[in-house]
Amino acid sequence: MINIIDKLPPGRYPATGDLARHFLEGRPDLFPAIWPHAAGTPESLIEAARQRQASLEQGEPAAPRAELARILTEQNQRLGSGPATTEAITRLAAPGTMAVVTGQQAGFLGGPLYTFYKALGAIKAAERLRRAGIEAVAVFWIAADDHDFKEVRPITWLSPENGALETAELPGDPSQDGWPVSA
Asked: How many whole angstroms separate alpha carbon 29 and alpha carbon 21?
């Protein structure tokens, strides 16, 4: 498998915003809150959750869980969610429960599969935390109201033949670039 980060020099990442580019370039000074856990190892995930629990126990403000649970319950009931979703929202409302949060905006070509991988990754990370004795639930959203149609129109990949960047783009009127992706 080709690792695009190893093949491209810094500054040549295709269609990458500053935040993602700085993360890929290894700029821990820009990500002090997450960088120690950015490697994504099981140990770093568990350590991050334990650190967050400790900060909550020391009085750091927590999210308004009851209000969050109420809103999530209403939204998911309208969408016809099942009992597992309702149970996860109930657990999320409990003090001390960690949330493994991720989401994805729509994407051209590989986007749908990537969305499933991200959702499954959050579910598996929450399961790993629970096995380590830390109550956790996965929270996933689809950023369909993101106003970045221009951002999701192109897809860039490395050619397997010569390693050159190749790009394809969905057709569209440039005046629609500020439209929500869901439109």
From this structure: 13
